[in-house]
Write a structure and sequence with these properties.
Heat Shock Protein 90; single chain; 10 helices; 388 residues; five-stranded parallel beta sheet; Rossmann fold; five-stranded mixed beta sheet; 3 domains
């Protein structure tokens, strides 16, 4: 009888054009009970991927025939695998593009093997968890399709929800989860290197603010993942003081000390019923965008107001920034939609898509009015919700 406690050996493919590094990594990882395959070039790596079941690819960025990034894009079209990039010349743009296209993690050379092992185990574990979720969803869909005619309408709705969940979860995992972990890791390393307790009080407070913000972001992402799986009856509805909520968000913006500093004009905002965590994300995204896209004017002015219209409260976030052509308004709230380049304004194109999803989750609507060079106003409505 087979021993059920025997652990399956994880199989790594290491791709690097330096034989010394390949042999060193193979020895080290073999001692750590990994099964290791090595390749010095693109063709050898592709052959191993075709012949062997690989659990993770450890890929060097600098390769003779093709960059590691381009090779990653190539084989990712065929193989769904977690990939960790090794590089001696990392940059924010490289890391961002790599993560955005599905990369699991990256590590700088010379490498800390212990840290690399942690990243490998984490990447494999996360990949398997996502695969289990996908397989489970596919089995559920298949089962529902075989059900009787009374379940056909429910099956159709579930398929739509699963499609939305897949897009949402992938975008969050690739664009937010990994960078948030990196922020926490890098801040810890910086504190150790700089001996933060010896720094002045203002610097210590800035370190604390960054750590708290990263933790808060991670919590918000986790809440959004939970939200993606919620059914209509699972709303966490309670009374929200939006005036206090917006004040806290504005305070956090002021800590960043943008140049030039933004002038905030906050009207008398009401209390509404809704999911507090999600409504906070709506205000944060809209106010953050207003600050970002008005940052190039002489005096950025951000106004937040609210008016009661019929059975809904309509909120408005107005700025005096660069604005946009209304021709592009219909696609503003699509996933990854961007009207400006990364060089002009940083961002992932996910914020407004989340705003739309959250507002619609509250049975409301979201829209925007703008003109190029004349600022923009984003509106969203929240109906009078009654907890079921």
């Amino acid at each position: 009888m087979l021993n059920q406690n025997i652990k399956n050996v994880d199989r790594l493919l290491v791709v690097d054009d330096q034989k010394g590094i390949l042999q060193m990594l193979k020895r080290r990882f073999t001692k750590l009970d990994y099964e290791v395959f090595i390749a010095e070039d693109r063709s050898s790596a592709l052959q191993i991927l075709a012949d062997e079941k690989i659990d993770l690819v450890l890929l060097d960025y600098m390769m003779p025939e093709i960059s590691g990034f381009d090779f990653f894009l190539e084989f990712s079209k065929t193989y769904t695998l977690p990939v960790i990039m090794m590089t001696a010349h990392s940059s924010i743009n490289l890391v961002t593009e790599f993560m955005r296209n599905g990369g699991a993690d990256f590590i700088e050379k010379p490498m800390d093997i212990d840290a690399l092992v942690v990243r490998i185990e984490r990447a494999i574990s996360q990949h398997r968890a996502i695969q289990r979720e996908v397989w489970g969803r596919e089995r559920a869909e298949m089962s529902l399709k075989l059900s009787n005619s009374e379940l056909k309408e429910k099956t159709k709705k579930l398929e739509q929800k699963n499609k939305e969940l897949s897009n949402f979860a992938a975008s969050v995992c690739h664009d937010l989860k990994a960078p948030t972990r990196h922020i926490n890791s890098f801040i810890s390393l910086l504190k150790e290197k700089l001996e933060v307790e010896k720094l002045d009080k203002d610097t210590q407070e800035l370190f604390q603010y960054v750590e708290e913000s990263a933790t808060k972001m991670n919590n918000m992402i986790s809440e959004m993942l939970k939200f993606a799986r919620m059914e209509e009856t699972n709303k966490n509805i309670k009374l929200i003081d939006t005036h206090q909520l917006v004040g806290q968000i504005v305070d956090s913006m002021n800590v960043l000390k943008t140049d030039p500093p933004a002038l905030f004009k906050i009207g008398l905002l009401p209390k509404i019923k809704g999911d507090a965590v999600l409504i906070e994300q709506v205000f944060f995204n809209l106010i953050h965008n207003a600050v970002k896209y008005s940052s190039k004017v002489h005096q950025p002015i951000i106004e937040v107001s609210a008016n009661k219209e019929d059975d809904a409260m309509v909120f408005a976030v107005k700025d005096n920034g660069i604005g946009f052509n209304m021709e592009y308004a219909p696609r503003l709230f699509n996933l990854f939609a961007r009207l400006h380049t990364e060089e002009e304004f940083e961002g992932t194109g996910l914020g407004l898509a989340n705003v739309k999803r959250i507002v619609e989750r509250h049975k409301g609507k979201v829209w925007a009015i703008s003109a190029e060079g004349k600022g923009a106003t984003f509106y969203f409505s929240i109906p009078d919700l009654v907890e079921q």
